[in-house]
């Protein structure tokens, strides 16, 4: 059985392995042990409540209980832009009109903004390629919303997700090459690494302060604005199924789109109910997403659930995976 559980420092080896597999442009999963260990330590403190709620960053691991192997991960950051700005480009239309010649021009432009400050971010969704079927991706992605739903006040009223931007088959990033590199003048991989491993001051120092007219940038970079990495299409579809929509914001490095949704409008949160659990044979009941009802020790699985007398009856394997006792509250996505 697959179980989603909190990550901690002991997961460093597995997280490093997934970071290598994830490839270029996966900013939240850098191939740097020090950075990843800091994140895992922060995750442990977040789940135990050892830090302020707005500073929390929860990392969840997808573990195969039979083999003990970590098959994927995802994360929930309680609030972005708290300790430093969270910059994006907003794609805007700038209108210009000349009364002298009676002509109006509408220009698309990229404008540097810091609109997401305080928003909750769901991200870092990555699965081993061989696990991208059979419901594992859905379990992992939706576990983030189950976590948010357990204690909504810990999280912002707006939830966002940044999707990895488009890379050409030759491994280059058209948006970086045509736009961002002109300001940062670093190799993409170095700049990408610095986002997570430094305080981000270089972004504050070097990011463009004036609108960038889209008509003036190379066509390849233009076409990449808001375009999703080939490996991110499934993630986008899952976001849209949960109610996320494009916000008009794109990443300042790779041009990938930012999606957002009101927290309480997320489909999984709306369709989840809390019930006491009961151990038993659910028979041919449908397989649903089930989680614990607390942030501390949060766990989630897919299991058959039969609703009976106001209880959620689940099998022994699910009871063991969730580490709950009969009668304890669980949350079930209907």
From TrEMBL:
GO BP of this protein: L-arginine catabolic process
Keyword annotations of the record: Acyltransferase, Arginine metabolism, Transferase
GO molecular function, one term: arginine N-succinyltransferase activity
Organism: Rhizorhabdus dicambivorans
Source superkingdom: Bacteria
Record protein name field: Arginine N-succinyltransferase
Pfam families: AstA (PF04958)
UniProt xrefs under InterPro entries: Acyl_CoA_acyltransferase, Arg_succinylTrfase_AstA/AruG
Signal peptide, first to last residue: none
Keyword Acyltransferase found: yes
């Amino acid at each position: 059985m697959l179980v989603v559980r909190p990550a901690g420092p002991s997961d460093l080896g597995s997280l490093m392995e997934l970071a290598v597999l994830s490839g270029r442009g996966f900013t939240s999963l850098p191939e740097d042990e020090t950075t990843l260990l800091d994140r895992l330590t922060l995750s442990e403190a977040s789940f135990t409540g050892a830090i302020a709620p707005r500073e929390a960053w929860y990392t969840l691991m997808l573990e195969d209980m039979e083999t003990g192997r970590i098959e994927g991960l995802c994360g929930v950051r309680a609030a972005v832009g708290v300790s430093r700005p969270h910059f994006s480009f907003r794609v805007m239309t700038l209108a210009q009109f000349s009364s002298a010649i009676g002509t109006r021009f509408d220009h698309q432009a990229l404008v540097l903004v810091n609109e997401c400050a305080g928003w909750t971010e769901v991200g870092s969704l990555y699965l081993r390629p061989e696990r991208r079927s059979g419901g594992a991706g859905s379990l992992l992605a939706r576990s983030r919303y189950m976590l948010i739903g357990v204690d909504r006040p810990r999280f912002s009223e707006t939830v966002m997700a940044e999707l990895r931007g488009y890379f050409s088959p030759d491994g280059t990033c058209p948006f970086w090459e045509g736009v961002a590199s002109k300001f940062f003048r670093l190799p993409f991989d170095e700049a990408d690494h610095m986002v997570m491993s430094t305080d981000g001051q270089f972004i504050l120092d070097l990011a463009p302060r004036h609108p960038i007219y889209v008509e003036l940038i190379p066509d390849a970079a233009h076409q990449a604005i808001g375009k999703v990495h080939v490996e991110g299409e499934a993630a986008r579809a899952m976001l849209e199924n949960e109610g996320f929509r494009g916000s008009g914001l794109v990443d300042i490095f790779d041009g990938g789109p930012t999606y957002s949704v009101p927290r309480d409008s997320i489909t999984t949160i709306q369709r989840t109910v809390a019930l006491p659990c009961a151990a038993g044979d659910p028979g041919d009941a449908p397989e649903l997403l089930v989680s614990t009802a607390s942030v501390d020790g949060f766990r989630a699985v897919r299991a058959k659930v039969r609703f009976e007398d106001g209880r959620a009856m689940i099998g022994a394997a699910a009871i063991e995976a969730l580490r709950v006792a009969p009668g304890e509250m669980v949350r079930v996505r209907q």
